[in-house]
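Bumping my old thread because nobody answered last time. Still need a sequence for this structure:
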């Protein structure tokens, strides 16, 4: 054990301690920013987001409204910036991407969305250094491949049930479409009152499909069903409509 009885020895030892603490403090100060940023690169907390543009002029150029897509369609878009270096790091800052899509560190958003919906999220980007990140909010709509809506809702006309629907093809493919309308009686018996099969061409919007027929006296729920097939992609799309309550025919046999 050291003997600090000598005043001179105590002074020398204290000076040694002070120099050691100063050296360690300087070393820690020099490496701590780099260490913190390395933690970011390894998946730690992101750099501080300062807004849509930082002091170096870095900003995200993509429009806030991203191109629409539809379920199970391949989707790919590359985010890009104005300003900044050639080495950038991208991440989802807040919100949720459509299920089935993934954002890479390179800024590539890609995949096949699994379901329809409107998705709001923010993407941030930072350079390869301890600079502050910038972010931008985006909207991506995943719309139904086939859209089906009432044009003239099913209704009773004497001893008939008539109506029409509108169908649209939002995809880039021509779809082999089957359209069938059933009037289902209270006893479960179903009568077809509409049927068509035809190619629904890509980008077709609000094509009207009428239906109707005479029916015996009774109450009927009306079911509209459209099934679309794209054989070369091995895809099937389906949409349905139904009257909220039975329609009653009071005339006829």
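Sorry it took so long. Here it is:
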């Amino acid at each position: 054990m050291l003997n600090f009885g000598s005043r001179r020895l105590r002074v020398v030892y204290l000076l040694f301690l002070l120099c050691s603490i100063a050296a360690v403090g300087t070393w820690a100060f020099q490496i701590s920013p780099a260490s913190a940023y390395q933690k970011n690169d390894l998946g730690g907390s992101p750099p501080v987001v300062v807004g849509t543009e930082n002091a170096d002029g870095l900003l995200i150029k993509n429009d806030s409204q991203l191109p629409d897509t539809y379920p199970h369609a391949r989707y790919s878009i590359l985010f890009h910036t104005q300003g900044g270096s050639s080495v950038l790091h991208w991440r989802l800052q807040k919100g949720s991407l459509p299920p089935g899509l993934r954002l890479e560190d390179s800024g590539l958003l890609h995949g096949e969305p699994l379901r329809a919906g409107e998705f709001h999220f923010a993407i941030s980007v930072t350079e390869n250094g301890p600079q502050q990140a910038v972010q931008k909010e985006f909207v991506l709509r995943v719309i139904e491949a086939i859209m089906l809506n009432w044009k003239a809702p099913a209704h009773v006309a004497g001893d008939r049930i008539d109506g029409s629907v509108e169908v649209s093809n939002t995809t880039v493919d021509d779809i082999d479409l089957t359209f069938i309308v059933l009037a289902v009686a209270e006893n479960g018996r179903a009568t077809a009152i509409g049927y068509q099969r035809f190619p629904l061409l890509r980008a077709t919007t609000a094509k009207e499909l009428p239906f109707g027929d005479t029916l015996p006296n009774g109450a009927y729920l009306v079911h509209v069903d459209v099934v679309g097939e794209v054989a070369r992609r091995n895809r099937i799309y389906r949409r349905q409509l139904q009257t909220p309550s039975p329609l009653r025919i009071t005339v006829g046999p």
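The radius of gyration is 33 Å. Let me know if any region looks off to you.
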